[in-house]
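[audit] Reproducing an earlier prediction to check determinism. Same input, same settings, fresh worker. If the tokens differ from the archived copy the diff job will pick it up downstream; this log only records the rerun itself.
[audit] input (175 residues):
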Amino acid sequence: MNSCYAVLVQLLLIASVLLGAISALKPEDCEVCFKVVEKFSNSLSDDVRKDPKKIEEQFRKFCKGSKSKENRLCYYLGGLDESATGILGELSKPLSWSMPAEKICEKLKKKDNQICDLRYDKTIDLKTVDLKKLKVRDLKKILNDWDETCDGCLEKSDFIKRIEELKPQFIHSEL
């Protein structure tokens, strides 16, 4: 009976290790968090890196110059004056222990799922892209970036036609 119990315990340990490896975050799963934590961590001096309070001060300064998705992450963590909540301790303490960005982002995701929902916008090279292969959402984004509309566009082909009409105004090919 004891040997069956020992085998069962070993199987459970192996399963938990495998599940832990499978559930580990990949950089593409939480790209904004990974990049911001890495960038911020690399900007810290050795004397600041040891003190969580100093790390929090530096993160607030770091966030003042942030834009777009990085600014949104700062908001979620409490690095901005207008942040509604703050979980900066979940960033500063692990950083003071030299924890890698992947693990810090895993911990932050457990506190607030929105942190890993942030994604950088894809850049689309309109000189080489096949518009037919893009999603309608991406076609709409192109028009929106150009501050243009597509009145009466109902189908993907309508959006493609409108982009093709406007391309000469917005894309200047080099000779």
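[audit] rerun output stored. Observation attached for the diff report: The two ends are 81 Å apart (CA to CA).
[audit] end
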